[in-house]
Write a structure and sequence with these properties.
Helices cover about 25% and strands about 20% of the residues. The chain is globular, with a radius of gyration of 18 Å. With about 250 residues, it is α/β, with parallel strands linked by helices. The relative contact order is 0.12. Strands 1-4-5-6-7-8-10 form a seven-stranded parallel sheet. A three-stranded mixed sheet has the order 9-11-12. A two-stranded antiparallel ribbon has the order 2-3. It contains six helices and twelve strands.
Length: about 250
């Protein structure tokens, strides 16, 4: 299943990122930082760096076993500027096999150079997503993603900026595909036809599919809708097009 399981937690060991592809143009991290007068291209280690291995006063883990930990969502876990910090982050993941760490990257081509000792065929508690916002990025990133030793892999066509043909890439190696439009001011158009075509490809390949959100600028049946942020995920759920790949 592509939906997150409870309980969940967030862990941002570092903050800030560098734009590298079309999907970065309206990055929410840049947008939020700008509101507070911060430069989102400045990459910094956060005060929560060691959150996965913190304990409370009673000696219990602050993040209990069984939690899905959304990781590095105000940066990219494979960002070059974080190379010095990543080995310690990997060690914290290794130390907490009862947690499930999930991060999404636009830098999957760097993974091989960033893996820790003892990775083998992948750690069962580390899941990864690869962003493929358009055809060019899908064709560049997915060969790296498919070949990498990862326990659980998800393709994220989000923000979906055009029609994407994943058919030659899909297979049992992929745990699912997530699609969604772009949010925020200046959001680029997402067409429902693109979403439905991704769903068709997933059905044919037996791969789970989730329509996560419409985005703010959404076209369906020839009409363009401006959808408030609060309604983008509910509207996607109402479409009823998610499936589990069977």
């Amino acid at each position: 299943m592509l939906h997150a399981v409870n309980p969940t937690a967030g862990w941002n060991p570092w903050h800030g990122c560098r734009r590298i592809s079309p999907g970065c143009a309206n990055c929410y991290v840049y947008r939020i930082d700008a509101r507070h007068g911060r430069d989102a291209s400045r990459v910094v280690k956060t005060a929560d760096f060691d959150l996965p291995v913190r304990r409370d006063r009673s000696g219990e883990w602050k993040i209990p076993d069984g939690t899905l930990v959304w990781t590095c969502f105000s940066s990219d876990f494979l960002l070059k500027e974080a190379d010095a910090w990543r080995p310690e982050a990997w060690e914290m993941m290794r130390a907490r096999p009862g947690l499930r760490f999930m991060f999404i990257t636009k830098r999957i081509d760097r993974l091989e150079a960033c893996l820790p000792d003892g990775w083998g065929d992948g750690w069962e508690n580390v899941w990864m997503g690869c962003t493929c916002e358009d055809q060019r990025m899908a064709d560049f990133r997915l060969p790296f993603f498919r070949a990498a030793p990862i326990a659980r892999r998800t393709i994220a066509c989000e923000p979906l900026l055009g029609p994407v043909d994943l058919s030659r890439h899909l297979g049992k190696w992929c745990a699912g595909v997530i699609a969604g439009g772009e949010s925020g001011p200046g959001a680029r158009l997402c067409r429902y036809d693109w979403v439905l075509d991704l769903r068709r490809q997933c059905l044919e390949a037996g791969v789970p599919f989730r329509f996560k959100q419409t985005g703010a600028n959404f076209e369906k049946d020839g009409r363009v809708w401006r959808i408030p942020r609060r309604d983008q995920q509910p509207q996607a759920r109402r479409a009823g097009i998610d499936h589990n790949g069977r």
